Amino acid sequence: MLVGFPLVFPTAMETPTLIALLHGPDQPGLVARVSGWIFARGGNILHADQHRDREAGIFFQRIEWVPTGSAGVAEREAGDFLAFAASLGMQAKVILSSRRARIAVFVSKADHCFHDLILRWKAGDFSGDIVAIAGNHTDLAEAARGYGVPFHHIPVTADTKPQAEARQLALLNDLGADLVVLARYMQVLSADLLEKIGRPVINIHHSFLPAFAGGKPYHQAHARGVKLIGATAHYATRDLDEGPIIHQDVAQVTHRHGVEDLVRKGRDLEKTVLAQAVRWHLEGRVLVYGNKTVVFD
Amino acid sequence: MLVGFPLVFPTAMETPTLIALLHGPDQPGLVARVSGWIFARGGNILHADQHRDREAGIFFQRIEWVPTGSAGVAEREAGDFLAFAASLGMQAKVILSSRRARIAVFVSKADHCFHDLILRWKAGDFSGDIVAIAGNHTDLAEAARGYGVPFHHIPVTADTKPQAEARQLALLNDLGADLVVLARYMQVLSADLLEKIGRPVINIHHSFLPAFAGGKPYHQAHARGVKLIGATAHYATRDLDEGPIIHQDVAQVTHRHGVEDLVRKGRDLEKTVLAQAVRWHLEGRVLVYGNKTVVFD
Amino acid sequence: MLVGFPLVFPTAMETPTLIALLHGPDQPGLVARVSGWIFARGGNILHADQHRDREAGIFFQRIEWVPTGSAGVAEREAGDFLAFAASLGMQAKVILSSRRARIAVFVSKADHCFHDLILRWKAGDFSGDIVAIAGNHTDLAEAARGYGVPFHHIPVTADTKPQAEARQLALLNDLGADLVVLARYMQVLSADLLEKIGRPVINIHHSFLPAFAGGKPYHQAHARGVKLIGATAHYATRDLDEGPIIHQDVAQVTHRHGVEDLVRKGRDLEKTVLAQAVRWHLEGRVLVYGNKTVVFD
Amino acid sequence: MLVGFPLVFPTAMETPTLIALLHGPDQPGLVARVSGWIFARGGNILHADQHRDREAGIFFQRIEWVPTGSAGVAEREAGDFLAFAASLGMQAKVILSSRRARIAVFVSKADHCFHDLILRWKAGDFSGDIVAIAGNHTDLAEAARGYGVPFHHIPVTADTKPQAEARQLALLNDLGADLVVLARYMQVLSADLLEKIGRPVINIHHSFLPAFAGGKPYHQAHARGVKLIGATAHYATRDLDEGPIIHQDVAQVTHRHGVEDLVRKGRDLEKTVLAQAVRWHLEGRVLVYGNKTVVFD
């Protein structure tokens, strides 16, 4: 495998396809050149979405096609496409639908996103596979095993955080994980660990960021008397709660909702927002640039 | 003007563009061929959206580009593109952003959609111009004139419907109307009139069709005890309330809402749903096939 | 237990309370009389919600209070209250929070509502307990047992339906079930069975009723080209899909969604709409009159 | 008029009613005592809503009733009720539906909330009357006069702010205004002016507060790459953008929306959120305590 970073590979339900995400300085003829390149090699374009940020002068594209020939051709074509994109001044990544992404899920004690992700995966909703659960507590160990998914207990304390992060990194490398999902994992990953992981990490924050960043957002929301609560799925970066936002949603609340009710209502938001973000990511629909995302939904 | 049917032309805020809506039997290479055709003539593609209905084997595309050369070139290129599309087995229409659509609004007594459409138009939200109001009652005549829009009173009774429809048709022809909007117009247009109009007619129905088709949908909704009310914008066809749906939205209601409350809440839905449908139509985002729409939003 | 029909009893997290649902012909002084009756006996009212249907002249009330004295007092007071309500010409039921409702869940093969209900119950969201799963297929038997909930296989065919329904009825009686939840159970309960059950049965229909009643609603929705799909939780009655609606919600869809996508998106709606309806029912928030509900949320 | 502060009076469509908003330390028997007081004087309770904040130990109530006797009785009963509420240790205000609130609307150049409020008022949606428009620019003067509403031009510059605020205050006093609505008024009212006004002031902020407080919230939202934009209606206090929130709503946005699109989409949110807040306020549904609101909807 040699097709760019980060490597994420949706499912091959039918014919294997290639999915390219491109962006770079806008210039005339990009749509025609990219589709012409694919057509000249006998590929058939299934989907193509473009976006232009006119202020910034940036061109964005997601394009999915069926290459001609055998499976080996697809891998070679992926590499060729990256070179072609570079010749256009574009940054690109290419995804092969024939290789499924490997997902590691980090958890603490809360179980709602954990169950939700696993059940959706088992229902066939994800173009990837949950290959392991890692928890800093053991509360979900038995449930994970009940689902047939390996559980790794990596406790974290203030004193042992460096060693714990070394274990987490080793685990991800052993697993060959393509994606890390923080499913209400209650520890902050250090900037150092995020850099070493070098793969996308999706987090769910239980507020409509940027409101109520930091700890106990439902308590903050209740204290402020807002009439909506929210959840935000974003890529984790070294700036806590400030990474590129993938998806957000909200629910109406009233004075009748105490903090516990916000927590309960918020669980539904957290589940659906995180699952949608993971799903889009796995299908190669999320393109990050600067601190923002383009989501080709 | 010779560029296909129906002729609708969004605004030219900046450089004039061409917008093509295509559909026809799916075949390999369509994306590349269409973009190649434009590129070969020096055009620059701004947006291109494709959709495939895999069950039906149909390809749909909306593509917007800046043609090279003077304004006259754009009109000629529009005609050439239609011939090109036909050579691919595609049905197409082409819109020139340099010509603004002319909109006739039909009203009765209710004024909320009437005010809403005019105020949005005056705010610059629409790629077209409201050129006349036609009412079967005179309730809105003064308000129309206050906005500086001509008002035409065409009363309709059971006995005089054929003559009234003849007057409506003559008015639309005189106006050179590209689009008719039924803004809570309380008369049914006959199949004969719709055919003679030969231009798109957008209607707002005050329910989430297909629920509560026909008359007094809020009364029907209240009697059934639903927990949501809705509004549906659709193209009017000879089958009442069964034309292709462009947009729908709903609002939560409770047992505390009587029929009058449903009517009041529904007004907000009707306004925003109708305005969104008109806006999308004017921007060439709505493609009709069979009894359904593809909305390239 | 002698406190009216149907008997449903929310959880006693803290002090045991009584919850009364009343309705009957409106008359002056009802609020004062009811609260006065409770106050005179030393009770403390926690919540009281009233609604008047002015057209029909009906008064509705949900009132929750802490009675004075020991647990035995609460049961006696419930009986006394029913007599008092009758003296006002009101129909009433009274719920004791100290007794948890017993819930039987009927399933077929689809597992999303099944998992969702059980996980919410285990998370403490429900004022009641799932005491058994009954399935006409065995697909969910192992999962049920994994959760520690008894699974009963009662196959149903056209020929054996009467015998199967007799087994279902016997099971519900053996369980002492207070509520039956049809969690995407794909068989119609006969009018005869519903009458014999004599307890509330909540069903989830996968459309915004009354649109797309009957079979395969997602296929119907796709064929009609609607822009919203919905789900409806309602009490099952002898008129299929026409019972009193408890809760409804919708989600936006586009031309890009095939039938399979509607099914997938609909699963989330079905889960949350059914769970909310069950939750409200268990908390004594749903009052049925005629073919409609008053939901004191 | 002698019935407490602030004086706001919904419409008398039918029989005149009294509406009381109460709050104070929780204690047993409050519901019974209040309804008993009304019943003993021959009043008939139409609606009664209670809420308890258990953490804070505060009881909240909105109660609406038809008093016995002539119109003069209602005013006297309002005064008596205030004394009664005080005897229970409650803060209260009482509203007479027979006197309509007088509303002053402050505007700058943006016209969408201005038109929306006036059209809703003319449609009969509000329990009050817009008696004047005050603008620091003259852009909306002609439109106001077209609606038959007096327009007052009070320009504001950094140098003349104190004098301008003195004129605003004098105008409100002359008008006998009960409510001030800031309909996208682009000047900050000084803490001194707010105190001297001594009447409720409702503002619309174009973000989901507390996110993007301060200036240019749509620009802030675009820069952060959020997937939702919002609007917040709140009472203006000396702490800018931090007053008690009455209502909030949001709309989904994508990368395809530039700042101008956010502004356009936001206009719809601002209109409906502000109108809903004004409507609730006028119907005596909003109770302020601390920096939060209880909305009896």
Short key terms for the protein model shown above:
disordered N terminus, globular, Rossmann fold, Alpha-Beta Plaits, alpha/beta, homotetramer, 28% strand, 7-stranded mixed sheet, 297 residues, 8 helices
Approximate helicity band of chain A? 25-40%
Kindly, what is the distance between the CA atoms of the first and last residues of chain A, rounded to a whole number of angstroms? 27 Å
**Biggest interface and residues each:** A-D, 33 and 33 residues
Oligomer classification? homotetramer
CATH fold category name of the largest domain in chain A: Rossmann fold
The low-pLDDT segments of chain A are 1-13
Q: Pairing-aware structural class of the strands and helices of chain A?
A: alpha/beta
Query: Would you identify the CATH architecture of the largest domain in chain A?
Result: 3-Layer(aba) Sandwich
Individual helix count of chain A: 8
H-E string of chain A: EHEEHEEHEHEHEHEHEEHEE
Secondary-structure blueprint:
Four copies of one chain form a homotetramer.
Chain A: E1 18-25, H1 30-40, E2 44-53, E3 58-66, H2 71-87, E4 91-96, E5 101-107, H3 112-122, E6 128-135, H4 141-146, E7 151-153, H5 161-175, E8 179-182, H6 191-197, E9 201-205, H7 217-224, E10 228-235, E11 245-252, H8 259-282, E12 286-289, E13 292-295
Parallel strand pairs in A: 5-6, 5-8, 6-7, 8-9
Antiparallel strand pairs in A: 1-3, 1-4, 2-3, 9-10, 10-11, 12-13
